[in-house]
Design goal:
By secondary structure, the protein is α/β, with parallel strands linked by helices. Helix content is 41%, strand content 21%. The chain has a ten-stranded mixed β-sheet, sandwiched between helices. A two-stranded antiparallel sheet has the order 6-7. The radius of gyration is 20 Å and the shape is globular. Bound molecules: 3-isopropylmalic acid and magnesium ion. Magnesium ion binds next to helix 9.
Length: 356
């Protein structure tokens, strides 16, 4: 049986790192006798250049027909001047929404071999951390009404945040059930001292938590959460939060784990189909140089095997190979020690493959 995987390589370093993930998947396939069918579809700037739109109909169809989607990154300076609804990023929001992927899982843990790269104080690093950000992905200010209007000081721009109880309930359930398989602690992050959406969010979290009596629920304001993430990240197990707060906090969480080049993510809906992507962007400044860190994409592929395809052993294998490659000293420039040697994207990918 072959697994059907749609590839959205995208822009910037996207193609390079997706190729790395594919090479690793093929290596795992060879070891365990699994067959993968990979099909490329256009997205983002690459799609704009070729078809005039960031998310062609064919791409949506292809992803809907696949078992999972592996995405690189979208966007770059070349398309920055385009109006909002024609930008590459719009395609990312569009595909998340078209596939109904409202749950975004962004794990962040300290790689012991990289603890020197962690910008936190030694005693905080020594305590370690392993947290999961559960970000709501298809609602909130990312998808609310926006535009221009006449305001008190003339023409003004606006974006609106809205959440229904239904949207909060389903992301709450996702967070509680994930916490149930971990350390059974959910921290819901909001701004309920100011925002009405956050007050609904908080009340709904409370309500849903009654269905999960063995999971502890706490609340934290987002400003405090941003501070606590660098003060004492070990206190968190599962963080559940809105689309925009999750976007911001997950970049912060990635940096304390060593590099933004390391963090994978999974976007899920009701079925088993998921979209898997690094949390980093297209990094146009280093695109095409062959030095991008492929590990976030490779770890995203591992999440795909585990979550959407139920291939636990194969996913473990990839994650172990990544840990091993890092401990054996392989470093792309983003995680290289000051003055230390670094390897290319290809060499890092090969190092992982050699350890599978
Ligand atoms: C992310 C990215 C995207 C987001 C951008 C590129 C639209 O920052 O996946 O975190 O904000 O969701
Ligand atoms: Mg982001």
């Amino acid at each position: 049986m072959a697994y059907d995987i749609a590839l959205l390589r995208g822009d910037g370093i996207g193609p390079e790192i997706v190729d790395s993930a594919v090479a690793v998947l093929r290596a795992v396939g060879k070891k365990y006798g699994l067959d993968f069918n990979f099909t490329n579809y256009l997205i983002g700037g690459a799609a704009i250049d070729e078809t005039g739109v960031p998310l062609p109909e064919e791409t949506v169809k292809g992803c809907l027909g696949a078992q999972c989607v592996l995405l690189g990154a979208v966007g770059g300076p070349k398309w920055d001047g385009l109006p909002g609804d024609r930008r590459p990023e719009k395609a990312l929001l569009g595909i998340r929404s078209a596939l109904g992927l409202y749950t975004n899982l962004r794990p962040a843990r300290l790689f012991p071999a990289l603890s020197d790269e962690c910008p936190l104080r030694r005693d905080i690093v020594d305590r370690g951390f392993d947290l999961m950000i559960v970000r709501e992905l298809t609602g909130g200010i990312y998808f609310g009404d926006r535009g221009y209007r006449d305001g008190r000081y003339g023409r003004e721009a606006f974006d609106t945040e809205s959440y229904s109880a239904y949207e909060v309930e389903r992301i709450a359930r996702a967070a509680f059930s994930i916490a149930g398989g971990r350390r059974k602690k959910v921290t819901s992050v909001d701004k309920a001292n100011v925002l009405e959406t956050s007050r609904l969010w908080r009340a709904t979290m409370e309500k849903v938590s009654e269905e999960y009596p063995d999971v502890e629920l706490g609340h934290m304001f987002v400003d405090n959460a941003a501070m606590q993430l660098v003060r004492d990240p070990g206190q968190f197990d599962v963080i559940v939060t809105s689309n925009m707060f999750g976007d911001i906090l997950s970049d912060e969480a990635s940096q304390i784990s060593g590099s933004i080049g390391l963090l994978p993510s999974a976007s899920l809906g009701e079925g088993s189909r998921g979209m898997y992507e690094p949390i980093h962007g297209s990094a146009p400044d280093i695109a095409g140089q062959g030095i991008a860190d492929p590990l976030a994409a490779i770890l995203s592929a591992a999440m795909m095997l585990r979550i959407s395809l139920g291939l636990e052993r194969e996913a473990d294998d990839i994650e172990r190979a990544v840990d091993q490659a890092i401990s054996d000293g392989f470093r792309t420039p983003d995680i290289a020690r000051a003055g230390g040697e670094s390897v290319t994207t290809r060499e890092m990918t090969q190092a992982v493959i050699d350890r599978i």
